[in-house]
Amino acid sequence: MSACVRLERLSVRFAAEAPFVLEDVDLVLRPGEVVGVVGPNGAGKSTLLRVVTRLVRPQVGACTIDGVDVARLSRAALARKVALVAQAPEVPVGYRVREVVAMGRAPHLGLFGAPTARDAAAVERAMAVTETTAFAARFVETLSGGERQRVVFARALAQEPSYLLLDEPTNHLDLRFQVELLRHARAQAAAGLGVLLVIHDLNLAARACDRLLLLDGGRVVAEGTPRDVLRAETLRSVFRADVEVLPGSAGPVIVARV
Amino acid sequence: MTTREPTREPERQPTSRPGGGQVLILAATVVALVAVVVVAIAVGSVTVTPDVVMSAVRKGLAGEPLRPLETIVWQLRFPRVLLAGLVGGALALAGAVFQGVFRNPLADPYLIGTASGAGFGAVLVMSLGASTPFLARVGAPVAAFVCALATVMLVVFLARVGGALPMVRLVLAGVVISSLFTAGTSFLLVAAREQAGGILAWLLGGFGFSTWRQVGLLAAVAVPALALVGAFSRALDLLQLGEEGAALLGLGVERTKLLLLGVATLVTAAAVSVAGIIGFVGLIVPHAARLALGRPHGRLLPIAALWGAGFMILADLLARQVIAPVEVPVGIVTALVGGPFFLWLLKGKADER
User: Fold this and answer.
1) Does A51 contact B at CB distance below 8 Å?
2) Which of A67, B36, B68, B230 maximizes the CB count within 10 A of its CB?
3) Mean pLDDT of all residues in B91-112
């Protein structure tokens, strides 16, 4: 079985008669690539990430990681494979930044294992990459929204997963750190992780992702390179907005007419 | 970092690695606790010197015959002080676990019905068995323990939906069941007429009849519980991320919650069965420990247990000395000292953690 996260004919709904939140979705995420999931609010983007982390179970179809159905993995085994940076992650009150990042080691330690030098090194590395080392000793509740977001990202890196799922990771970040974070995501992919990125900003998506998956109403509307997916007529019908797509040097540039 | 945001409050500790401060606090705590134990044993209706305390310990452990003063120390004061310490430590530990699992600083060991169940059971046996002192003396603690566990199991059963145990349902069921049992207890108290005073004194808690056997029984529950909960301190830390956050880091959330609440309830029920219902310790001691040490449970839990022990020993000392020879129920002392302290926390500490 090749290494990848694979969704096959996946359908999810939250009650028996309710409409499907995801319907007949296929997706393959391989190590080394950044796949973006884009689409309007309520398209099912976050639910897709929650299926991979087994916070939601599909009614139809399956999600496998490296060939194993996620339903058959223990919580800890799943957490060693996949890290999720949620959209509005809760930060625990009364913990220092280094302690929060170190929580990412939990799936490797089990309940009773003592952290080793290897764990400490993973924590320091994750903080160095996210530039959070400078406030490692501060209490996490004293940080700004953007700083917290980076701490949560650092914790996901400390998890040393094979696949990294990011749900709107750039939301609270200013332009510099948006670019930085996406650069980190690309660097992680270059280092061999598979990165699945839910993102609203189509221009950032076009630059950060190798492939895009465009969802609307739970269904895949388009899939392919950013240039293939981000076409004016597709975006106009999906977002119901007047959109122009200009050819840019680093990928298509999407301009909405207000 | 060039674009670092301004620090919103000064660093509480300039050291980059927490560690040194905690060791100091732990060492100071142990020294202070030993001192408190010696003072509490020495002071009483007959005050003895520390060397009598020491000789009583030596002879008591060796099983040698004791002089009268040494008998008071070894047979009365020692079990009393140790029992107070164990009860205080057990309640503080249980409180820290409840506050950690519920992620709510207002949670205490009695939140999901332990106290009301224990009170009802004990009062039922006392009022029925008033004519047989043996039943009242032996049966009441047993009934308190059994009813406390049964009440919590009922609350958990009522709160459960599917495989999950949502916190809100748990607290709601706990509050409602607690009021039911409290009403039942009040009814029994009124119906008990002339025995009501004695029953009320038990409900308010105290260490007047402490024995070595009780010390042994409670230690057999509380010490393994401390070790077990301590082993789960990292799980308690993960629970602070919310249930989904904890699950994403590999924790079996429902199993962990059930186990921790089960252990905390068992410890609370054991404490209540030997000493009655003593409030505020389980609420304020974990708070105070958290203010001094921060949240991480690996260092919070042992300190909370030790502080709870010291606080209860002092409260009991006050209870038997303040209007001696009359003993004030220790629950009144903990409430009188603990209440204002808690209000001070509430108003004074803006940076709640």
Assistant:
1) no
2) B36
3) 87
pLDDT by residue (tens digit) across B171-215?
A: 899 999 999 999 999 998 888 777 777 778 778 788 887 888 889
Contacts of A67 (CB under 8 A, 6+ apart): A1, A2
Q: For residue B6, what pLDDT is reported?
A: 42
Question: How far, in Å, CA of B300 to CA of B283, rounded?
Answer: 14
The C-alpha atoms of residue B118 and residue A22 are separated, in whole angstroms, by 50
How far B290 CA lies from chain A's nearest CA (Å)?
Answer: 8
- CA–CA dist B301, B307 (Å, integer): 10
3-state helix/strand/coil string of chain A:
CCCCEEEEEEEECCCCCCCCCEEEEEEEECCCCEEEEECCCCCCHHHHHHHHCCCCCCCEEEEEECCEEHHHCCHHHHHHHEEEECCCCCCCCCCEHHHHHHHHHHHHHCCCCCCCHHHHHHHHHHHHHCCCHHHCCCEHHHCCHHHHHHHHHHHHHHCCCCEEEEECCCCCCCHHHHHHHHHHHHHHHHCCCEEEEECCCHHHHHHHCCEEEEEECCEEEEEECHHHHCCHHHHHHHHCCCEEEECCCCCCEEEECC
Q: Could you give the CA distance from residue A240 to residue A221 in angstroms, rounded to a whole number? A: 14
Task: Report which of B36, B46, B43, B41 is spatially closest to residue B56, judged by C-alpha positions.
Answer: B41
Asked whether A138 and A96 are in contact (CB, 8 A), the reply is yes
A76 vs B: CB within 8 A: yes
pTM, entire model: 0.86
Which residue(s) pair with A83 in the sheet? A164
The interface predicted TM-score (ipTM) is 0.90
The string of pLDDT tens digits covering residues B234-267 is 999 999 998 889 999 999 998 998 899 889 988 9
What is the per-residue burial (b if ≥16 Cβ within 10 Å, else e) of B70-97? bebbbeebbbbbbbbbbbbbbbbbbbbb
CB A89 to CB B245 under 8 A? yes
Q: How far apart are CA B240 and CA B271, in angstroms?
A: 27
Q: At B269, which amino acid appears?
A: A
DSSP B111: T
Structure tokens at B160: 């459960």
Question: Closest Cα to residue B122, out of B204, B1, B222?
Answer: B204
Residue A107, CA distances (Å) to A156, A210, B234 in order:
11, 29, 11
Contact (CB, 8 A) for B93 and B226: yes
User: Which pair of structure tokens corresponds to residue B39?
Assistant: 């003072």
Interface residue A97 vs chain B (CB under 8 A): no
SS3 at position B135: helix
All residues of chain B having their beta carbon less than 8 Å from the beta carbon of residue A111 are 231-232, 234-235
Q: Is A131 an 8 Å CB contact of chain B?
A: yes
Q: What sign results for the dihedral spanned by CA atoms A149, A151, A154, A156?
A: negative
| Number of CB atoms found within 10 A of residue A225's CB | 14
Per the listing, tokens 């069921």 go with: B173
- CB-facing half-sphere around the CA of B34: CA atoms within 13 A: 7
